[in-house]
From TrEMBL:
HTH tetR-type domain: residues covered: 8-67
Keyword terms: DNA-binding
DNA-binding region(s), residue ranges: 30-49
Domain of life the protein comes from: Bacteria
Name of the protein described by the UniProt record: TetR family transcriptional regulator
Native species: Nocardioides luteus
PROSITE patterns associated with the record: HTH_TETR_2 (PS50977)
Length: 223
């Protein structure tokens, strides 16, 4: 999350501490540990939020608001292929928020779902831009392709974080940068060269599946 303002209220300080603690430990983190991080008593946390579940819900809202604000600030980056994940990876101030999102992905929370849906929308947008520029081949189902690519990338990143977890959410930016560094070569090879030397598998598959909805597809360019 961004640095707290000097006049941050006690309630805001608790929220900031909770986002950091949830990013570090997951949503099983105790109210006592959050209170300690915020420099208040557990009773004061309960006074402000009622229950840990309600605190969790307010953290979700705060992170979703940050995501929306970040999206608004990165439209130009998105159209050039630099999506929200790249911004998070390259700005340490966003690393705790990304850690929170990844925890939410692991737990199936609303923040994780909203983050994925936003990334899919972004991918559809800059893929369309790439097609219009002649850099990307059209797909029979643009949204399905964008969804697959986003889920593949986030799934791999989530596994990377699970296999090599960091105790400090501020190190998540480094984890993401490391993931991108090791993953870019195979990703670019797949995108530019493909895997198979023939399209036989695709042709066989297309014999047995219905055409996608009209609004989902553009006729792909022939090989």
């Amino acid at each position: 999350m961004r640095s707290a303002p000097a006049d941050e209220t006690t309630r805001d300080r608790i929220l900031s501490a909770a986002v950091l603690r949830f990013a570090r430990e997951g949503f099983g983190a105790s109210v006592r540990s959050i209170a300690g991080d915020a420099g208040v008593s557990p009773a004061l946390v309960i006074h402000h939020f009622g229950t840990k579940d309600e605190l969790h819900a307010e953290c979700d809202e705060r992170v979703l608001a940050e995501i929306r604000a970040t999206k608004s600030a990165t439209i130009d980056e998105i159209t050039s292929g630099q999506g929200i994940l790249h911004r998070f990876a390259n700005a340490d101030e966003y690393a705790p928020m990304l850690g929170y999102v990844l925890r939410s992905l692991q737990s199936g929370g609303p923040v994780g779902r909203a983050f994925i849906e936003q990334m899919i929308e972004d991918a559809v947008g800059y893929t369309k831009h790439g097609i219009e520029a002649g850099l990307i081949k059209p797909s029979r189902d643009e949204r399905a392709r964008a969804r697959y690519l986003v889920l593949s990338a986030l799934g791999a990143l989530t596994l990377e974080l699970s296999l090599d977890p960091s105790r400090d959410p501020r190190d998540i930016g480094g984890t993401v940068r490391s993931f991108l560094a090791t993953g870019y070569l195979p990703m670019i090879e797949l995108y530019t060269q493909g895997v198979f030397t023939t399209r036989r598998m695709l042709d066989d598959y297309l014999l047995y599946v219905p055409d996608p909805p009209d609004d989902a597809a553009a006729e792909p360019a022939s090989d």
